[in-house]
UniProtKB/TrEMBL annotation:
<feature type="transmembrane region" description="Helical">
    <location>
        <begin position="30"/>
        <end position="48"/>
    </location>
</feature>
<comment type="similarity">
    <text>Belongs to the FUN14 family.</text>
</comment>
<dbReference type="Pfam" id="PF04930">
    <property type="entry name" value="FUN14"/>
</dbReference>
<dbReference type="InterPro" id="IPR007014">
    <property type="entry name" value="FUN14"/>
</dbReference>
<dbReference type="GO" id="GO:0016020">
    <property type="term" value="C:membrane"/>
</dbReference>
<keyword id="KW-0812">Transmembrane</keyword>
<feature type="transmembrane region" description="Helical">
    <location>
        <begin position="79"/>
        <end position="101"/>
    </location>
</feature>
<keyword id="KW-1133">Transmembrane helix</keyword>
<keyword id="KW-0472">Membrane</keyword>
<protein>
    <submittedName>
        <fullName>FUN14 domain-containing protein</fullName>
    </submittedName>
</protein>
Length: 104
């Protein structure tokens, strides 16, 4: 017979949820900061191009962004989800990460 301590499982689940929530919140804030930095950089490029200081190949630049997006969508993360869902800490972490990312 398996001896399961509900208090220990609750602490593991709650701890994982708290850590996951903090990481999700931080990940969203960092993603927003990166988006702002990239946006400002593109505005600077556009301004310098309009002043004749810089020449930007926008087709080549956007092709690189589209290629990166395609690679990001092809990443298989199902193995990560299956590992985390089997552990009580992982289940709490996953839930907390999703909530933290949504609230962030």
């Amino acid at each position: 017979m398996i001896d399961v301590d509900p208090a220990a499982l609750g602490i593991e689940f709650g701890g994982g949820a708290a850590i996951g929530g903090l990481m999700g919140f931080a990940a969203k804030k960092i993603a927003k900061l990166v988006a702002v930095i990239v946006g400002v950089q593109l505005m600077v490029f556009r301004y310098l191009e309009s002043q004749g200081i810089l020449i930007v190949d926008w087709n080549r630049l956007s092709a690189g962004l589209l290629e990166t997006q395609a690679r990001a969508q092809d990443v298989d993360v199902h193995w990560i989800q299956s590992i985390l869902s089997t552990l009580s800490i992982g289940a709490g972490f996953t839930g907390g990460l999703l909530i933290g990312f949504k609230r962030g």
